[in-house]
Amino acid sequence: MVRTARVLFILSMALLVLGCSRGAAGGSGEANGHGSGPVPSVPLAAAFVDEIRGWVGAADGIWYTEDGGRRWTRRVLTQEPVIRLGFLDSHHGWALTPSGALLRTESGGEEWTPAENPGASLRSVDLVSPAQAVATDGEGLLVSRDGGRTWNRTGPPLPFADLDFVREDEGWAAGMGQIWHTRDGGKTWEAQLTLPEPDRWQGFTFVRFPSATSGWVLFCLGQGAAYQETYLLYSTADGGRTWTPRLIGPWPWCCCPDYLSTCAEHRALV
Prior knowledge:
The structure is a single chain. The protein has helices at residues 2-20, 260-269; strands spanning 30-31, 38-39, 43-48, 54-58, 61-65, 73-76, 84-87, 93-96, 102-105, 113-114, 124-127, 133-136, 141-144, 152-154, 162-165, 171-175, 178-182, 190-194, 205-208, 215-223, 229-236, 244-249. It is mainly β. It has one domain (2-269): Neuraminidase (6 Propeller), CATH 2.120.10.
């Protein structure tokens, strides 16, 4: 089961890396190179519930596959790109746009309805159960225990960019070159990893934990020339006690003298 979750997550991360390098958005889905129909235009987020069923958030809406990604169907056309997407199970899911608009589904993505916004510009949302959701606006944790109708701020004001909870009391958050862990529902957080010069890591950040021990975090440095970004992918197999760099790329790491020391340090680790 854990092995399957890891494989599914690797597939999701491949799509997220495409979003991290974000080319120009626009238009409807392009033709599939295998001739099996349209595909999402500029994938920005992904969520799979098993080996064959999954969703992609893209520049032109939310897309669904039930054959492992060979064919895609657009379930909803959005006026904005869908930059975050998650499913608790095959029925309950959420989606987020750049303006902070939050969509929910309880029908496996057949229908999407607007959810209450907590009065902040959200950066990430995670469903812990059908009733409980957690979110961040970049200034800490927001918690809803009534399906997203009301929200309360919990814990210290930390610069979260993304978060993932494996149960109501335990979760991880990442942002600004750092990873944090909580065991009390977000009331307190412990830093697990801090990158060199953390304030420079202001690009996209993604954190996913398929289980309480296995997790991945993707950090992006920020958009460079030709829409490219330097990124770092870290993994843990012990609940975040140790983190191992897995991937650096996609372009030459040492782009300028400011990052020479960081470059040398991370190349030595890989």
